[in-house]
Amino acid sequence: MARRGRNGCCNVLHLNEDNSRFLLLALVLIGYMMFGALLFHLLEKEAEERARQKYLNCLKKFRQKYLNIINETDLIELLYEYGNATANGVISGTDRWDLPGSFYFVATVVSTIGFGMTTPKSISGRMIVIIYGFLGCSGGILFFNLFLERIITLLAYIMRRYHERKIKRDNQRRDSLYNNRRESCVSVDDRLDMNWKPSVYWVMLVLATFTVLIAVSASAVYSVVEKWSYFDCIYFCFVAFSTIGFGDLVTSQKNSGLDPCNSYIYRIVNFVFIALGCCCIYSLFNVTSIVIKQFLNLLIKKLNFRCKCWRKHKAPVLTQVARSRRNALTPNHLRSYAHSGHKTVKVSVAADSSDVDSTYDSDSERRNSNEMICMKDVIKTNKVSLAILQKELYESAQRSRCYRSPAILLPSKTTTDDFNTGTVGPLAIVSKKLGEEND
Amino acid sequence: MARRGRNGCCNVLHLNEDNSRFLLLALVLIGYMMFGALLFHLLEKEAEERARQKYLNCLKKFRQKYLNIINETDLIELLYEYGNATANGVISGTDRWDLPGSFYFVATVVSTIGFGMTTPKSISGRMIVIIYGFLGCSGGILFFNLFLERIITLLAYIMRRYHERKIKRDNQRRDSLYNNRRESCVSVDDRLDMNWKPSVYWVMLVLATFTVLIAVSASAVYSVVEKWSYFDCIYFCFVAFSTIGFGDLVTSQKNSGLDPCNSYIYRIVNFVFIALGCCCIYSLFNVTSIVIKQFLNLLIKKLNFRCKCWRKHKAPVLTQVARSRRNALTPNHLRSYAHSGHKTVKVSVAADSSDVDSTYDSDSERRNSNEMICMKDVIKTNKVSLAILQKELYESAQRSRCYRSPAILLPSKTTTDDFNTGTVGPLAIVSKKLGEEND
User: Fold this and answer.
1) What is the CB-side half-sphere exposure of residue A49 using CA atoms within 13 A?
2) Phi/psi of residue B337, each to 5°?
3) Inter-chain touch A136–B231, beta carbons under 8 Å
4) Percent helix / strand / coil, chain B, rounded to 5
5) How far apart are CA A142 and CA B290, in angstroms?
6) What is the distance between the alpha carbons of residues B222 and B266, in angstroms, rounded to a whole number?
């Protein structure tokens, strides 16, 4: 990635890459919203006019029919009260603030869906919403983030397993052909372990499939119980799962004709569907946002946004050193994949350490001394390489923890368990940068 | 933290700590929601009943007055149409699907606020909301996460600067007292650089102050223009900023009596307030969720949730080794802060590398060789320590990047710029675990 240019817009504006990406996203979002505004204006303007005309016609007809009979103020008062009653949801006949209804309300607060089918009217109620919502929403965000972390870990694990098995099969086939089993097997395995990560697009596809499956099955239930059209149910699912929650369609508000027992079951099923859907779509949005970030990076590149990521006078020298020393980090039987783009730098140090484990008695001595000489060399020559080494070591440790054999898995578990959960979600920013007390 | 016990509930259920924390949070949230349901049921039940009675009384009065004059079906039809018109927002007189109104609608989709004052009625409109919202919400989440990352970085930087200045002042005072300037200054500085992070609670306080300031000034504007009570404005601010968006109170919906020019300015001010408020409260929620996570960890500890984080038969041996070797990582002039609790393990390796820089010619040879011997030792004896070393090296690199002198700052910038943005937000999970293409 072009990050060291000196003529880019970022440099002119004295922005580093993070700030320029943030501003660019703001601009792109505003453009996207303007486009959306135009789109929905064209789509919905007519329907709005139709709805207004329909109501006005009805009112006109009513007035003409009862001209001079009905006092106008009486009518307006009735309509006003009716409007209030509709807004408060007291027309439907079913209680909205009974215990299950209150639970539904609270769930829409915690998840930030906020349908608004029931809202507190009293001052005390509104005050408590603020206090209750503050804690509840924080808990809800934590829940979504922990779910995201769990599901991504699971998906990455499964995909990597599948990939490794495929590679192993390929290797065995090739080895039996070339009859050179031992050597090729080790080197190819090492290379793949180090480099392979599941693609964002695959994970996106899997999450999208989950979400669609949940929406489709939820809609099947809703369309029967709520008597909405199937498409409306899909629309409701999207609006609810994404926590937008317009409130134009809300489940469990009408008397659906279910007997009390089934009604309770329906409420629970509804809750489970919405909770699952919210978690899945939250994960999906986050994975999609990575793709959007890539698009932004591409845009920055295209717009010649060359960023002032370090000070001009030192940069070229340091890069040179970093580049030239990088090869010294790994003995020649290990491969160094130094990729200076958006992908992180990958060097197979963990592969080495696991190799050490499996072939400990035979040649670990040589390897270790080899590695030591390199490190010493690096540190003596320039600290730049130490920074690279630090990152590489850490990354390989991270990766090895996920799919290595137990012998390697266990020791890293020992020390990196907190680390694992702490570097995940928006929590990452906070827990990395801030001290955590009380623990 | 007790993570190696063998009699805890986690072990019985075969859960690791991450999973048990996730499940515990789910349980706590459900408990919290049940409590909330009861609370709001008690608070709002009466108001609901009152609202219903008020409407029914009005209807009864109207019916009694016009008994035998008005055809009941006509009245019901009128009320039904009126209800629809209210729901569609066509009563207020102002267009809701004009361009600014559409923009407002789209902004509530992208931010997932979803007031629902305007919702698409046509099938095509609803279909497009799904497609448009999918991209828009992803972009919105990315925006919030990038904002979170920016604000936390800024706050941590400012707080660290302030703290360092304070420490330096203290040191100078003490040094002038003890007349032993050079030595004590270096050691104390190093120790603080390595260990000090701004407290979660301070950042929470600062963010809460920001949010309250925005809400207070926004409410001052709203209470004048919308003619709501000041408290209602505060309530609206909370509901909008937290992206709950009930829609019981929505700005810019009535004809406020502003002239067209002021009306546009008001819309823009409204947009800026809501955007800023959403970003701030999102950050606040995320920081608060860290505190909730700490509470959960405490709860796990209290409940004797001793987790099966590694396999039983190897665990004790490995810990022993890890413990006994840990001291070997750093020569005795560097301090090792091995903290096995929720705080991450901190060893001052970066301090060493910066020391090497400042005193390079004099004694770097000795230090490097010292370090090398230790590392070699460690790797030879057990890989456990390598995992610890990896983490320590990485952490010190991360920390040194934030506030070290340029000489140290630049090299790490070289390699960890992607890393920095990639390890932040929920993006962290995804970009760490998944391969990113197209870059």
Assistant:
1) 7
2) -105, 90
3) no
4) 75, 0, 25
5) 8
6) 9
* Percent of residues, chain A, with pLDDT higher than 70: 61
Sort out which chain A residues have CB atoms less than 8 A from B388's CB and list them: 414-415
Q: What is the pLDDT of residues B365-412, one digit of tens each?
A: 333 333 333 444 434 444 444 444 445 544 544 443 433 333 222 222
Token couple for B383 = 């890989």
A116 and B118 within 8 Å at the Cβ level: the answer is no
Of the CA atoms within 13 Å of residue B229, those in its CB half-sphere come to: 6
HSE at residue B39, side-chain half, CA atoms within 13 A, is 18
- Cα A185-A374-A315 angle, rounded to 5 deg: 110
Cβ contact (<8 Å) for A33 and B110?
yes
Indicate the residue of A41, A368, A397 with minimum beta-carbon distance to B97: A41
Work out the angle at residue B86's Cα, subtended by the Cα atoms of residues B85 and B88, and round it to the nearest 5 degrees: 65
Q: Which residues of A touch B99 (CB under 8 A)?
A: 37-38, 41
Which of B50, B383, B409 to mutate to test binding with chain A, by most A CBs within 10 Å of its CB?
Answer: B383
Nearest CA in chain A to B357: A383
Are the Cβ atoms of B425 and A422 closer than 8 angstroms?
no
Interface contact A26-B234, CB threshold 8 A: no
Coil/strand/helix, residue B346: strand
A346: helix, strand or coil: strand
What distances in angstroms separate CA A173 from CA A165, A177, A180, A181, A259, one per listed residue? Answer: 12, 6, 11, 10, 62
Terminal alpha carbon distance of chain B: 41
Contact between chains at A418 and B344 (C-beta distance less than 8 A): yes
**ipTM of the prediction:** 0.72
Give the whole-angstrom CA distance, residue A346 versus residue A195. 7
| Contact yes or no for A217/A277 (Cβ under 8 A) | no
- For B110, the closest chain A residue by CA position comes to A33
The H or E element spanning position A252 is none
pLDDT digits (tens, 9 = 90+) for B128-141: 999 999 999 999 99
Cβ-Cβ contacts under 8 Å, A390 against chain B: 393-394, 396-397
Asked if B25 lies within 8 A of A139 by C-beta distance, the reply is: yes
B337 - beta bridge partners? B346
Contacts of A244 (CB under 8 A, 6+ apart): A113, A238, B108, B109, B112, B113, B114, B133, B137, B245
User: In chain B, which residue's Cα lies nearest the Cα of A104?
Assistant: B37
For A235, the token pair is 């629309």
H/E segment holding residue A126: helix A123-178
| DSSP state for residue A18 in the 8-state scheme | H
d(CA A294, CA A435): 31
**A383 in Cβ contact with A321 (< 8 Å):** no
Nearest Cα to Cα of residue B171 among B191, B188, B149, B155: B188
**How many alpha carbons fall within 13 Å on the CB side of residue B262?**
7
Mean pLDDT of chain A: 70
Interface test with B, best of A22, A33, A150, A366 (most B CBs within 10 A): A33
C-beta atoms of B286 and A54 within 8 A: no
Q: Do A85 and B51 touch (CB under 8 A)?
A: yes
Q: What is the pTM of this model?
A: 0.72
Query: Where exactly are the structural domains of chain B?
Result: 8-62, 332-403
Q: What is the pLDDT of residues A259-306, one digit of tens each?
A: 888 888 999 999 999 999 999 999 999 989 888 988 898 888 887 645
How many beta-carbon pairs below 8 A join chains A and B? Answer: 689
- Residue B337: strand, helix, or coil: strand
Element (H, E) at B347: strand B346-347
How much is the pLDDT for A118?
Answer: 86
Terminal C-alpha separation, chain A: 41
Question: How far apart (Å, rounded) are the C-alpha atoms in residues A399 and A408?
Answer: 11
Among B371, B429, B150, CA closest to B279: B150
Look at A248 and B290 and tell me if their CB atoms are within 8 Å.
no
